[in-house]
Amino acid sequence: MTPIVVDVSPAVHHRAGLGRYAAELVKALAPLLPGDLAIFYHDAGRADLFPPLDVLPARPCPLPAKPWRLRVMLADFFHRPMDALIGPARLFHATDHLLPPFRALPAVFTLHDLIFRLYPETHMPLNRWFLTLMMPRFLRRADAIIAVSECTRRDAIRWYRVPEDRIMVIYEGVDPRFRPAPPEAIAAVRARYDLPDRFILYVGTIEPRKNLPTLFAAYRIMLERWPDLGLVVGGKRGWLTRGTFRALRDLGLEGRVRFLGYVPDEDLPALYSAAAVFAFPSLYEGFGLPPLEAMACGTPVVVSDASSLPEIVGEAGLRVPPDRPDDWAAALATVLSDATLRARLRERGLQQAARFRWAEAAERTVEVYERVLRSRRTVEALHGGGARVHGQWAQGGSR
Questions:
Q1: CATH assignment at residue 298
Q2: Are 232 and 343 in a shared domain?
Q3: Distance from the CA of 23 to the CA of which of 247, 258, 265, 330 falls in 20 to 30 A?
Q4: Residue-level pLDDT at 393
């Protein structure tokens, strides 16, 4: 059977949130589409194919990220369909904020966020330029659009006037491995990373949008009351980090904040479980998976009251404006000092996280595939077999 092809480029190149989405979605799709699923990825020479990606039929492209983006952009502007590059397929699912132009191949596009437009100063200039230029074309060309939150859906409708019936919300999920870790696993991860006895935890890429200077300032305030309290940052350095580390120096916190760098997935449940509280001061999230993973591990969370985070966390965590360090210090202090509140947040967090399942996300994604394919067959029957041009069907055209 001609397969459905999913772009797993962000997964095989370990691109944080987008990578987690692509990997977990394909893992959940595989049993639903036996023998009917294949993967695509660029920069094949550097791809890390881990299970189950390593056993699925693959359509690798040798081009590294920047040449791959350039090729897609030029093909788009010069109307050069790229169906042959993907190979025989029934549908292509773009998960990497990049959709090649196709003549006849239906496409589903996952929109994670519009950060490049809402907070352009937090993006690298070349990436911002590419997405500003190409995102309207990707959204217009897709047969259906999946948004990972209501917040992202609203942003797309507001900024790009995407018709409401073309974009639907399918939430991400929490892998079952994220659950309260047993004492021996917590002890092992404490020893492995030399963790403080009691600490605040942040997990995520270090980049301007994550707003770590606010957390640093709040932590500095809290040290007056709890001089032995630790702050642990898990995640690799991203881009434009100079301001983040300047704030650390200006607050006199160099050597006090523990930076772990990239943390392997197998260590994350115990790391979350070891923390006294999880803090996520991000300015904007299309979904916001780390707070959900922390809640699934039984750790109370404090998050920004911005973008999708209130939608995802609900009443299971404390919400604070992202630009108020004093309020962050007060909220974190309340969690640390109130055992009843901690227990309540733990219970609510476990319940809230259980609502988000990759199996359900995959089932709903398959429904989108089927709807797109049915629609395509209907239109082809009406028009005698044609190709779609920017949302319209015409004989011999290209998308």
A1: 3.40.50.2000
A2: yes
A3: 258
A4: 28
